[in-house]
Amino acid sequence: MSKKLILFQGDSVTEWRREVGDPDDLGAGYPPCVAAHYCARGFKFVNRGISGDRISHIRARWIKDCIELKPDILCLFAGVNDVLVQLYEGFMTPLEEFLRDYRYILDEAKAKLPKTKIILTQPFMLKIDDRISGIADYLEPIKVCIKKLADEYADAYITIADKFDSIVESGFAAKSLAEDGVHPTAFGYYIIATEFVKTLNKLI
What we know:
The chain has a single domain, classed as SGNH hydrolase (Rossmann fold, 3-Layer(aba) Sandwich), CATH 3.40.50. The protein has helices at 12-15, 30-37, 55-60, 62-65, 81-89, 95-112, 130-136, 139-153, 160-169, 186-203, and strands spanning 5-10, 44-47, 73-77, 117-121, 156-158. The chain is α/β, with parallel strands linked by helices.
């Protein structure tokens, strides 16, 4: 009997220090923390996050980095770079293009992997300085799109941004979760991993 395969897909938040050339490397972010929780269960965890990827990049590699892997559970955590790119290249992904590409990869997953369970994840951007605060609100329509798609396609939806916001509101500094507002600290990754474990426990 083959091992149950859980795939983590996304951008640098998922990739985090993963050796991209090593198909078995889980990196140093939330994926290895989640995998460690299930070490006695014999599951296979795969990380295919790639730093800098926007949703169009994930679409371009979807066959190789998702469909051909045939995961039992697909975890997709993306969207922040479609806004963050504004700081570096002076544009953001138009919302209709984001929705089109995100829907396409989910349609492909449903059509070619009908037994695969899907977990979608809400992206976050913490307002740690004026630079990030100036674009953070543009992530809100992206989050609305992902929630809409989660209602249509997903078996579970993880609200990481809402969780981080509630932690900040309780008195923790935003930088304790993500020093630059986007890439989690060890504490931030612990929170993300905990939310994934809670969700996976309901699906496995």
